[in-house]
């Protein structure tokens, strides 16, 4: 791809909208739900239809790559077995990591999703720079040094710090 995709250059909300539209257009088999009006979903309501992509823009290029690979698999599946295409149900951040849920999975798709999760665990969710898991003691998030929350310390340090002496 030449230069930054459009969705990386806009303000956060516009960018999210653009990114979701990009996913729907580029990977229609993986994201049919995201493109349907909510009224049409009925019992087929899935988190992705209500909330869209629930993680920050730093992870979107990783997601885009993973979705591109899954869609290629989908095109092969669709030729012989259109009822078995992989559909995204929820994509979100949880406990500082990427979660990517689909209707079905197979070894190939599982490997693609695991690789994306692994990459996200080292990538700042806000800006895409090299990142790691930070915690405020309550929140967990994968950030770079610049984007981390006030008072957050890296998770490794947090879990390895000596316990405070008990008050007697
Ligand atoms: Zn950052």
Descriptive report:
By secondary structure, the chain is an alpha+beta fold. The protein folds into two domains: 6-121, no CATH class; 124-168, no CATH class. Helices cover 39% and strands 15% of the residues. The strands form two sheets. The protein has a three-stranded mixed beta sheet with strand order 1-2-3. Strands 5-4-6 form a three-stranded antiparallel beta sheet. The longest helix has 21 residues, at 60-80. The chain is elongated, with a radius of gyration of 18 Å. The termini are far apart. The model has no long low-confidence stretch (mean pLDDT 87). The site of zinc ion (ZN) has 8 residues, from loops.
Q: Could you list the spans in which at least 5 consecutive residues all have pLDDT below 50? A: none
Tally of helical runs: 6
Which descriptor suits the 3D outline? Answer: elongated
- How far apart are the termini? 63 Å
Instruction: Give me the side-by-side strand order of the main sheet.
Output: 1-2-3
The number of E-state strands comes to 6
Given helix and strand content, the structural type is alpha+beta
> Ligands in the structure?
zinc ion
Helix content: 25-40%
Query: Major sheet: size, sense and barrel closure?
Result: 3 strands, mixed
Number of domains: 2
Radius of gyration (CA) equals 18 Å
Strand fraction equals 5-15%
